[in-house]
Write a structure and sequence with these properties.
- The two termini are 17 Å apart.
- The protein has one domain: Rossmann fold, CATH 3.40.50.
- Helices cover 32% and strands 18% of the residues.
- Helix 3 links the parallel strand 1 and strand 2.
- The protein is an alpha/beta fold.
- The chain has nine helices and seven strands, in the order H-H-E-H-E-H-E-H-E-H-E-H-E-H-H-E.
Amino acid sequence: MAARMTERPHRNFYGRLKGKTLKASQKAYLSEDLEALSPGLVSWDENPERAPLDLKARFGDRPVWLEIGFGGGEHLVHQAALNHDVAIIGCEPYINGVAMLLGKIRQAGVHNLAVYPGDARDLFDVLPDASIARAFLLYPDPWPKKRHHRRRFVTPEHLEPLARVVKTGSGFRVATDIPDYVRQTLEEVPKRGFYWTAEKPSDWRAPWEGWLSTRYEQKALREGRTPHYLSFVRDDT
């Protein structure tokens, strides 16, 4: 088991935390629904000792999936509706996206979701070892300029704790329409104990079973960009 931090680390955050003014309904979702959807004590303010989350107490015996940066939440709610026997944690620091997700949860009536409205690195701190049965990273911020590539998710700062929390034999799925993000993903993820499962071109050109094409993907297709669907499996051998 990896040693847990005792002092709050300095972590730069480069994305947006808030966009345009929230609608009254979205403000209501945040005030009325978000607290009850918490996966547990995650933030440093509420859990300075970084005690691991008790996922069994929160979700019972269900396998736990994780979506990192869920955007507007379409895929997250879709997966929750398709997989009632699974619990899914969504992590997203962009509060407008969180509000959009909460509205979708109300509309869909799904009850197997938890939401952390913050940095995935803080969530990784308190997830138990080998606790995640599947992880998704869908259309992450590409940070296209070369000098910004260190800000991408597919770097050691994020991938090493991800590898710690994903169970051996479990999957990590990455979707992106940026060729250089594909390159960096294929270079970096296998260094952290995952192997790429593709055997033929259709394995990365066609989406996975149960896929929901998000608004971002539809925009990418309209603009002529090609989605890539990369599947990895955690392997300790």
